[in-house]
Design goal:
Layout lengths: L8 H9 L3 H7 L16 H33 L2 E3 L2 E3 L2 H12 L18 H14 L4 H4 L3 H9 L2 H13 L4 E4 L15 E4 L6 E11 L5 E7 L10 E7 L4 E6 L10 E14 L5 H38 L1 E2 L2 E2 L4 H39 L8 H40 L9 H10 L8 H13 L4 H8 L5 H27 L2 H30 L4 H24 L3 H11 L1
Parallel strand pairs: 3-6
Antiparallel strand pairs: 1-2, 4-5, 5-9, 6-7, 7-9, 8-9, 10-11
Helix pairs in contact: 2-10, 3-4, 3-5, 5-9, 7-9, 9-10, 9-11, 9-12, 10-11, 10-16, 11-12, 11-13, 13-16, 14-16, 15-16, 15-17, 16-17
Length: 574
């Protein structure tokens, strides 16, 4: 028997040690929902017990049913003929298992049949699903679409769509990318026009690289304002599959073979405006991005976990020179680094989801409370958690997806030549991991998104609080090696700020974000080691491994000047 929750001590540690008190109270409206809905928790203990029960059930589904099907799904994938996408029978079985478990509306409110769980718990499910089959996350992980309708849609739209999303009758896709726009969503050209007589909206144009583009419900970014060419002319629309919405083809991809990635053609497709005009990119897509970054972080982490476990199992069974290869120092050093990276990524991810949950909770209060009645403390907390989420979600996405690629790479290396063969899972993990640091914003764009918060020292209060914890013995000695690096980061940020050169800041952004990430994760791992002594050695090893990289980043920032920009150009041209 394999259960992807109960066999993962680190995931259980995250559930047991996250501070859920404030975020669950916000999610459950101080547990008032229990007076109206039978499945709503009556207190914090009841809520966490329910989370654990559902996570255990999903752990069983992913370990016992979904994972054994993953190789065949990868080999055969969906079928496309005459404009119709048909998912593989085993993918359909996976989705049925998840529907039967009641987890297709994890974050949707009780009132529409959802579980009303926080993002943190949904992310844990996403990680387990991704460990079982990385491609399945691209179907299970699209629940942000229904969340967007729940947050910004009309009452009529909520009534029409949300109950069916909660049961899994409806699935969705997020139609943003176009053939020429890529990451530059401001340049989206798909046209939305409104019939002046009926008020009906219609969509015309093309979208590309649309995950699950064969969905029943589409959330579409389109240009609604004639004569505009920037993000202020874009609105968000809801449309349904229909003859006018044509799937032109599905992509033949390197990895995540189980999900269809489609090119779509809109031929005057009837649509409904979601939210307000002109807010499509500036508000709704930006809101979606926080959820999307977290979801892909979890997908990457699940793949990394699978790659690490596969490599560890292979190394413990493969004999060379009369002993298993996991006994050789170069191999157990690689396995140790793989494990450290997954633990560190998980620590950052679930600290990030906690912040996202708090941001969403306070955003909801702000949106549903008249300004005159709003507690100033609520307003202050909403601002604080919004700023933290703005830097931590791209930081998490960049870190988790990059380490997933590193862990999957090392997984093949430990397998040796067999890892290169299609007969082993190692090469699939490597292929599946590769997309995670590309879609929903490349790592380079995550650095761009995070650097503002790094330059403004947004995370300083968080790290200050962590630094006041009472570390003793090994942890105290380890923190002493981390403190000077934090001072170096502060000096480097000051150095770059004083230059007042935006191009130089952009060039140094990767180094600065790398330093900030390692420092935050280092302190988080020290904190976690206070709760579990088995984590002391991991915290020490992680920080000692990170210091050379942080030191190199510091010297690169401090030793270079604006002429370096020209030098980089010369190297490219050479």
């Amino acid at each position: 028997m394999s259960n992807f929750f109960t066999d993962n001590k680190d995931l259980q540690f995250a559930l047991d040690n996250l501070d859920f008190e404030a975020l669950v109270a916000l999610k459950e409206d101080d547990y008032k929902f229990s007076e109206e809905f039978i499945n709503a928790p009556v207190d914090l203990d009841d809520a966490v017990d329910n989370y654990r029960r559902i996570l255990t059930e999903i752990g069983d589904v992913t370990g016992e049913r979904i994972e054994p099907r993953s190789r065949t799904v990868d080999e055969e994938g969906p079928h496309f003929e005459d404009g119709v996408v048909t998912y593989h029978p085993l993918t359909q079985a996976n989705l049925k298992d998840l529907r039967d478990a009641g987890v297709m509306g994890v974050m949707l409110p009780h009132s529409v049949g959802g579980l009303n769980f926080p993002n943190t718990i949904y992310t844990m499910m996403t990680e387990m699903v991704s460990r079982a089959d990385g491609s399945l996350q691209n179907l299970f992980g699209l629940q942000d679409i229904s969340e967007t309708i729940a947050e910004f849609g009309t009452d009529e739209q909520k009534a029409a769509y949300l109950p069916k999303f909660a049961t899994g009758e409806y699935d969705g896709s997020m139609d943003l990318t176009e053939p020429d726009s890529g990451s530059d969503l401001q340049s989206v050209r798909l046209k939305a026009t409104q019939d002046p007589k009926t008020g009906q909206w219609y969509l015309d144009g093309n979208k590309r690289f649309i995950t699950n583009g064969c969905a029943k419900v589409h959330l579409v970014l389109a240009r609604s304002e004639e004569g505009t060419s920037d993000g202020r002319g874009l609105s968000m629309f809801i449309c349904e599959s229909c003859p006018e919405l044509v799937v032109r083809r599905i992509e033949h991809k390197l990895g995540i073979h189980g999900v269809a990635t489609a090119e779509l053609q809109y031929n005057h497709v009837p649509a409904q405006l979601c939210g307000l005009r002109r807010r499509g990119l500036t508000k709704y897509v930006m809101s979606l991005m926080n959820g999307a970054r977290v979801a892909i972080s979890a997908q990457a982490l699940g793949i990394a976990e699978a790659a690490y476990r596969e490599a560890r199992k292979y190394a413990s069974e493969r004999e060379q020179f009369k002993k298993t290869i996991d006994k050789f120092p170069p191999i157990y050093d690689m396995l140790t680094r793989m494990k450290l990276k997954t633990v560190a990524a998980r620590t950052l991810l679930y600290e990030t989801t906690k912040i996202v949950d708090l941001r969403q909770g306070y955003n909801h209060i702000m949106a549903h409370t008249p300004a005159a009645d709003l507690d100033p403390e609520i307003r202050e907390k909403q601002k604080r958690y919004s700023k933290l989420a703005a830097v931590m979600t791209p930081m998490s996405k960049a870190y988790c997806t990059e380490i997933a690629n590193e862990v999957a790479y090392d997984g093949i290396q430990i397998h040796g030549g067999t890892g290169f063969m299609h007969d082993f899972n190692a090469e699939r993990f490597y292929r599946d991991a590769r997309i995670t640091n590309i879609y929903e914003g490349t790592t380079q764009l995550q650095i761009v998104a995070a650097i503002g918060g790094v330059m403004q020292r947004t995370l300083d209060p968080v790290i200050d609080d962590l630094a006041t914890l009472s570390f003793e013995g090994l942890l105290a000695r380890t923190e002493k090696t981390l403190k000077p690096m934090r001072k170096k980061l502060q000096d480097a940020v000051k150095f770059v700020n004083e230059k007042k050169d935006t191009e130089y800041q952009a060039l140094m952004a990767r180094h600065l974000v790398t330093m900030e990430t390692y420092i935050l994760v280092g302190y988080l791992m020290l904190r976690d080691a206070l709760k579990d002594t088995e984590r002391e050695a991991m915290a020490e090893k992680f920080i000692l491994n990170a210091i050379p990289e942080m030191d190199a980043a510091y010297h690169l920032v401090m030793s270079e000047d604006t002429t370096t920009i020209d030098k980089h150009s010369d190297i490219i041209e050479y």
